[in-house]
Specification:
With 183 residues, the protein is mainly alpha-helical. Helices cover 61% and strands 0% of the residues. Helix 1 crosses helix 8 and helix 3 crosses helix 8. It comes from Streptomyces cinereoruber.
């Protein structure tokens, strides 16, 4: 499938690996794909993100992702569902951090085998790559561009799509931004 990726989409994927390495993450996640998209310049996804104001609100987006990591990767929808069951996630996080230190529920050390140079993709980030192919085919386009990766991130449920939606970056909004004539 990677051979169908445009130069821009390939740059996002390798950029996500670089972000994961910089953070010392054990694997490449959906969040790393988003951060690499936000780093992109002069691509279709970068132009759409800029048009939707996401690049100006990057710090807020990163804060929302960090808050979700602190909650062990739970989305606010999941936190609300647990609250309906009488489970206070904030209280649990506070108790865990009180015992084990701040950020105890975030990803730990790099779990790759010693000598391994390859950083794996999580199941969820692989699903984003697969979804980008479906989005591309659904739009009747031949190559998978970084815009298809962005659309895939907005289409899949979870923390990243929730953070994007909270910042006005939904599937529909991205499609509209992509379909606008370029100035």
């Amino acid at each position: 499938m990677f051979e169908r990726f445009t130069k821009g989409a390939r740059a996002v994927v390798t950029g996500a690996v670089a972000v994961a390495e910089r953070e010392g993450a054990p694997a490449v996640t959906e969040e790393h794909l988003l951060l690499a998209l936000l780093d992109a310049e002069d691509t279709r996804a970068a132009l759409a993100l800029r048009a939707l104001g996401a690049t100006e609100r990057r710090a807020s987006l990163e804060a929302a992702l960090a808050a979700a990591r602190r909650r062990g990767g739970l989305s606010t929808v999941e936190v609300d569902a647990l609250a309906d069951l009488g489970i206070d996630v904030a209280r649990i996080v506070a108790r865990v951090e009180e015992t084990h230190g701040p950020g105890a529920l975030t990803a730990g050390s790099d779990g790759r085998p010693r000598g391994s140079k390859r950083r794996p993709f999580t199941r969820e980030s692989k699903k984003v790559l697969e979804q980008s192919l479906r989005v591309c085919l659904g739009r009747r386009e031949k190559e998978i561009g970084d815009e298809h990766l962005l659309l895939a991130l907005t289409a899949r449920p979870g923390v990243v799509s929730e953070a994007l939606a909270d910042h006005g970056v939904t599937y529909t909004a991205v499609e509209r931004a992509l379909d606008r004539p370029r100035a």
